From TrEMBL:
Enzyme's top EC category: lyase
UniProt xrefs under InterPro entries: 6-PTP_synth/QueD, 6-PTP_synth/QueD_sf, PTPS_Cys_AS, PTPS_His_AS
Function, in words: Involved in the biosynthesis of tetrahydrobiopterin, an essential cofactor of aromatic amino acid hydroxylases. Catalyzes the transformation of 7,8-dihydroneopterin triphosphate into 6-pyruvoyl tetrahydropterin.
Family: Belongs to the PTPS family.
Names of the cofactor(s): Zn(2+)
Keyword Protease: no
Keywords: Lyase, Metal-binding, Tetrahydrobiopterin biosynthesis, Zinc
Name of protein: 6-pyruvoyl tetrahydrobiopterin synthase
Enzyme Commission no: 4.2.3.12
Protein's UniProt keywords contain Metal-binding: yes
Pathway(s) it belongs to: Cofactor biosynthesis; tetrahydrobiopterin biosynthesis; tetrahydrobiopterin from 7,8-dihydroneopterin triphosphate: step 1/3
Length: 149
């Protein structure tokens, strides 16, 4: 009986979630080309100031997948670190999001859109269907989650 339990248990597919945290610094201004100057000021307030402002963004990247019985891993975090470097740090760290990152030339650099940018960039490197969530702490109080929907 004990032997059967053991056999069934080892055959079971177990799903794990692996999260890696990464910080980056960037400045930006909330401004939409689809809105008038008055609307930009009314909607974005102090965040529409032409001088911009900066954040130390903290990003949590979560990957979902089968825990490989041979390696014990969903994916190797060493690989995930490299993907994060290419998908987040190289394009965004110490950048002016609106001026230095072409994606934000016509996309408002809200944290929601930064999360979408990071999601789409990570998809280029991660195994298919493995990215579960991108969570960004723009400040201690402002947190955005994007799950690819
Ligand atoms: N839906 C969103 N709303 C806002 C975003 C955003 O990305 N998505 N971003 C901003 C500004 O970028 C701004 O930096 C946030 O400022 P603020 O709320 O003032 O930041 P704090 O929480 O740190 O400030 P407190 O004064 O302590 O509340 C605005 N809106
Ligand atoms: Zn901001």
């Amino acid at each position: 009986m004990q032997e059967n339990v053991s056999t069934v248990s080892s055959d079971r597919c177990r799903i794990g979630y692996v999260t890696r945290v990464q910080s980056f610094s960037a400045c930006h201004r909330l401004h939409s080309k689809a809105l008038s100057d008055e609307e930009n000021k009314r909607i974005f307030g102090k965040c529409n100031n032409p001088n911009g402002h900066g954040h130390n963004y903290n990003v949590e990247i979560t990957v979902r997948g089968k825990i490989d019985p041979a390696t014990g891993m969903v994916l190797n975090i060493t690989d995930l670190k490299e993907y994060i470097e290419m998908a987040i740090m190289e394009p965004l760290d110490h950048k002016n999001l609106d001026k230095d990152v072409p994606y934000f030339a016509d996309v408002v650099s809200t944290t929601e859109n930064v999360a979408v940018f990071i999601w789409d960039n990570l998809l280029k490197f991660l195994p298919p269907n493995s990215l579960y969530e991108v969570k960004i702490h723009e400040t201690d109080k402002n947190i955005v989650v994007y799950r690819g929907e």
